Amino acid sequence: MNLRPYQREFVEGLREKIRQGHKRIVGVLPTGAGKTVVGSYLVQSSVERDNLTWWLAHRKELIDQPSKTFHDFDIPHSFIRSKYPYREGSMVQIGSIPTVAKRLGKLVRPRLMIMDEGHHIGAATWQSILDDNPDAVVIFLTATPIRLDGQGMGNWATAMVVGPSTRELMDMGYLCDYKMYAPPKQLDLSGIGRQAGDYRKKALADALNKPSITGDAITHYKQICDGEKGIVFCVNVQHSKDTAQRFCEAGVKCEHIDGTMPPALRDAIMRRFRAGETTLLSNVDLFDEGLDVPDVVVVIGLRPSKSMSKILQQWGRALRMFPGKECAYILDHAGNSNATWRDHEGCDQPVGLPDDERQWTLEDGLRRKKSEASTVVTKTCPECLYVYRPAPRCPQCGHSAPVQAREIEVVEGELEEVKRQERVAKKEARMEVGRAETFEELLAIEKERGYKNGWARIRWAQKSKRRN
């Protein structure tokens, strides 16, 4: 089995942690970097040492994909899953986490467990499997080792191995570069309640399942990347069905798919999509993880979320390389690039762009890599909507326009391409809060910015709690 250089380095990093005595290890590789291939290599190496090995996942798609990869690499395997063939003597078992949890005590314990999409750890079924296998080495594979509730994976693991970043893989030619377009103004979600940390789906659907919003998505798809294969992420099943119907009415072949469909129907829809008979595939949360269709060029986001993991996983569906694919398009109608997560300092931070540098950690929350704040201002050409650094003329179409400090010209209803130089002032303001070391400094910020009385007291309490 031939691994790419960074994959070999990643595997060696995991092995070194095991040699050091760690039994619970988080392995981080970006979406599209080949987690399944790396995992297959680990499985094959484990079996060569006569170690019983489990590959565990929580959804059908995450079970079918490794099985196909194991077949490709001639790795014999069995299944621990309802209605799948089970052979007790097989050295490799691909297991459904709910099924394995129900059969604990009846199964021979493995020496190695690989838990796919390991950021879901913390659920009762996952925990019961860990508790029943205290002596097994467990590798939590994930592209996004961060939970919606902010808990760090250090609550379950003692070590972390991080592979190259998304930007590094793009620069090496292993992932496709992208262009992101987002609404000039974020959707007003102030009246949408929360459930388990994320937006309530029904309220979101009522707010977003409107012909005007879907109409904008259709219009911009046709303007920016008409005819390209893509995935649409919606709020709930009805929203997805309606969206698929409206795309079809506009002449774009789009099919809806969801987890309640019979397996045969889902498989047929997927066959048509893979074959190119269907241009767009509309779903809810079915393809956040595990979908490997490298010729997907477009991701259309119609589902706002507070989950960084969900957002990055969705965007990553379009970043795989494919012959003839020049770049990916991310149409962020949900405004998720402006969504926020909670950092170590208790501040709300924007999710940002797919290739922003992120410093993954086992601690609660997540840190951004430190870098100097950019002072470069971007400008949107009013003629072609191309975003560029200040210059006398638009480098795309040659349009001449005056440069305005920190103003981005917007054509109503159009999308503007997002660049990482945006929101510099806001970022510096957040960093100032993070650097404050006394209550008096926070109080000064509260007064200077006109925040509500009590803001400094709440921030100081949060800082004090973390320090203790």
DSSP helix fraction: 25-40%
User: Can you tell me the overall shape?
Assistant: globular
Overall pLDDT score: 81
- Largest sheet, if any? 7 strands, parallel
β-strand percent reads 15-25%
Number of strands: 22
How far is the first residue's CA from the last residue's CA?
Answer: 48 Å
Q: Report the structural category.
A: alpha/beta
Strand line-up in the sheet with most strands: 3-4-2-5-6-1-7
* Low-confidence segments: 343-347, 368-381, 384-389, 403-413
The number of distinct helices, counting runs of at least 4 residues, comes to: 14
Radius of gyration: 23 Å
Structure description:
- This protein is of the alpha/beta class.
- Helices cover 34% and strands 16% of the residues.
- Helix 11 (308-315) links the parallel strand 14 (298-301) and strand 15.
- Residues 343-347, 368-381, 384-389 and 403-413 have low confidence and may be disordered.
Write the layout of secondary structure elements.
Blueprint: H1 5-19, E1 24-28, H2 35-48, E2 53-57, H3 60-72, E3 78-80, E4 92-96, H4 97-102, E5 112-116, H5 124-132, E6 137-142, E7 159-162, H6 166-172, E8 178-182, E9 194-195, E10 198-199, H7 201-208, H8 211-225, E11 230-233, H9 237-249, E12 254-256, H10 263-275, E13 280-283, E14 298-301, H11 308-315, E15 328-331, E16 340-342, E17 348-350, E18 358-359, E19 367-368, E20 379-380, E21 387-388, E22 416-417, H12 424-435, H13 439-449, H14 455-467
Parallel strand pairs: 1-6, 1-7, 2-4, 2-5, 3-4, 5-6, 8-15, 11-13, 11-14, 12-13, 14-15
Antiparallel strand pairs: 8-22, 9-10, 16-17, 18-19, 20-21
Helix pairs in contact: 13-14
